[in-house]
Amino acid sequence: MASVNLREEAALMLTRSSIVAELDIHDARIIVDAMRPMAVKAGTVIMTEGQTDDVDYMALVLEGQVRAEGSGVGDGDEVVISVIDAGQLFGEMGLIDGSPRSATCTALTDLKLAVLTRRALRGLVEVQPAVAARLMLSISRALAERLRESNRRLRTLSQISRAMQAELGAVHAVNKRLLAAQARKAG
């Protein structure tokens, strides 16, 4: 990263990021030094859900906002997953596994990003293994928290679905009785 002030600001943001908040300022500076700056214009799609190329990086938002959205269930509509603000990371799963992107991320405003590629992470592993390990543990912890939250939401949706199915079953039974009564009256 070019400017000393921008480097320090990025390092401070990294220590405050909900994903890697356990990093101290020294670790954050080392990680920021491995990142490259990127400017993105508002409206630009940064990554697309299902994208299989250029998936091996994550980015720290230094300035601006990013909208993350995923495809809806069968209706083709996009569902906003989150709005990512300055100081937050996105794309961590791609950094770790290189699998297709799980969401579409679009710049809501002009952005300044700091990007960490898997190649740069591998360099950190070789040169600063303890820092790289702390970064990966922090990312893993954040992903585990997201998975737990997704599981909680899935359980809630499952309970709602069962309740709706029971309600529909009751409505269906009432409709059958009404139709049977109407048929008896007509016949």
Automatic annotation (TrEMBL):
GO molecular function: DNA-binding transcription factor activity
Residues spanning the membrane: none
Matching SUPFAM superfamilies: cAMP-binding domain-like
Matching PANTHER family: CRP FAMILY TRANSCRIPTIONAL REGULATORY PROTEIN, HTH-TYPE TRANSCRIPTIONAL REGULATOR ARCR
Record protein name field: Cyclic nucleotide-binding protein
Pfam family, one: cNMP_binding
Domain Cyclic nucleotide-binding: 19-125
One Gene Ontology cellular component: cytosol
Species of origin: Pseudacidovorax intermedius
